[in-house]
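Student: I would love a firmer grasp of how sequence relates to backbone shape in proteins. Thank you; the sequence and its tokens follow:
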Amino acid sequence: MSQERRYGARHRIDLPVYIRYRRRPFLGASAHDVSVGGMFLSVHSLILPVGTPVELEFSSLGRDWLIAAVVIHGDNTGIGVMFREPQPELFQGLIAAEHMPPPPPRTAGTEVDYRS
């Protein structure tokens, strides 16, 4: 049985991420969970050794992100990465975005007619 080594809470997400390896966009992945210190990326046909430095490129929370990370584990389902620097802004923003109420639906009569 493996021992849990995470120091912070994980938050489930579904976020497209490009993994930059050796300074070029390498592979599209999907982030499935994130914490202040890292994330798990679902990938196909990619094996990166533990300790491999990568950069994660994605758009979320109304901005573009480029986060330096290092591979800490991997298997045939994906890779776990640890951020070089903690990312509390990303983590808290994703949690807050999930708990925001959706915008109200548009109803008939609320559209503005700019032709007049």
About this structure: The first strand starts at residue 11 and ends at 21. Residues 11-95 form a domain with the Thrombin, subunit H fold (CATH 2.40.10.220). The mean pLDDT is 81.
